[in-house]
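Weekly structure sync, notes
Attendees: PL (lead), two postdocs, one rotation student
Agenda item 3: pending single-chain targets
PL asked that the sequence for the first pending target be pasted directly into the notes so everyone works from the same version. It is reproduced below exactly as submitted, 187 residues in total.
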Amino acid sequence: MATFKKIDPANMAETANLVQVFNISPDSTEKKIVDFFQYCGDIIEYEIVPVENGFEALLLFDKASSVDTAVLLNNSRIDDRNIVVKKYDDAVKEAAATTETTEAAAAAAPSGTSKLANFIADTMVQAEQLSKSIDTKLGVTEKFQLLVEESKKLRDSVDAKYGISEKTAKATTAINTKIDEIKNNEK
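Predicted structure, written out during the meeting:
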C-alpha cells in the first residue's frame, strides 16, 4: 500500500468516507481522476501518490453513501487501465491479510466490462424501449409533428395578413440601397 502523507487515516476517527483507488495509469492526470469520481459525491479531500508503474489515490467523500457509489466504479477504465476501487477499511484489511502487490490485485480483477458499465448499458436499452413504447401508445412524435405543421401554418397566415416577409424584403432592399449610396458618396 502507498504511503499517504496529506490524508493520514490513522489520525481520522471515522474512515467510512474513504475510498482507495489502485492501478491508476501513469498517464492519468490529477484532474481526470478527480473528475471521474466527482459525480459520486462531494470530495472533501484527496491525495494521489506515485507508486511503481502508476498511481494510487485516497479520496475522502462528504458522505459514506458516496463511497458506496464510488465502489461501483471498480474495474472501470481510466486511460489505459482498469482501476481497482475499494473502501479504505476493506483495502487495509486485505493488505494486512495478504502480501500481494497492487499489480497482482489489479491482475486478479475481472476483465471485461464492469458491473456499472453493464448496468448503464442495460438501463439505456430499457430507456430506449420505454420511450418507443410510450411514443407508440401516446403518439408523441405524431402530435409533435402536427404541432410543428400548425405552427408553420400560423406563421404563414400571420405573414400573409401583415405582409411581414414582403415588408422585410423591401426594408432590406432600401437599407442596402442606402449603404451603396453612402459608399459611392465616400469615393
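Discussion points:
- The domain at 15-87 is CATH 3.30.70.330 (Alpha-Beta Plaits).
- The longest helix spans residues 115-138.
Action: rotation student to compare against the earlier draft before next sync.
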